[in-house]
Design goal:
mainly beta; 5-stranded antiparallel sheet
């Protein structure tokens, strides 16, 4: 698993901005197919949320677990390409890198099946530690024309 957490105020995190970026692979225990997901909290208020699991049912532990909206990519802010989402398994992975104490990037190029047409996909997260401002930049190269969807909760 890979997870970066950036804090504007390391002495009193609750007084500033906290932002996280998820990496790793989609074969992790209790996986959600959510590589690249960003959670943003500002002065104790959640601005971009991870909605979590919800109520556990038999479906949660079945082959249809990713049909549950909040366990699949549609329940997170990872991009979807013409409806194609990330897939389950260790082969669907990302590379997470940290740049100093205020920026991180995740290469999501291998987090999607071939049918998504993703050639390159990078998400860069930058926190201005003076103002608490956050910038999220996605850069994608895909084959053909794709409709890009990103859910924000």
């Amino acid at each position: 698993m890979g997870l970066v957490i950036l804090r504007e105020n390391t002495e009193s995190p609750e007084k500033g901005t906290i932002v996280s970026l998820k990496g790793g692979h989609n074969g992790e225990s209790h996986n959600h197919n959510d590589l690249g997901n960003v959670v943003l909290v500002r002065k104790g208020k959640t601005l971009l949320a991870d909605v979590g699991v919800g109520v556990y049912t038999a479906q949660t532990f079945s082959a249809q677990r990713y049909d549950i909206w909040n366990l699949g990519a549609q329940g997170h802010n990872a991009p979807r390409f013409s409806g194609v989402t990330q897939e389950f398994g260790e082969n669907y992975k990302s590379v997470l890198t940290l740049s100093g104490d205020s920026a991180a990037a995740v290469d999501l190029s291998k987090a999607y099946p071939v049918s998504a047409g993703v050639k390159k996909l990078n998400r860069v997260l930058t926190l201005d530690r003076q103002t608490g401002a956050v910038e999220i930049v996605d850069t994608a190269e895909v084959s053909g024309k794709k409709k890009v969807e990103i859910s924000l909760y």
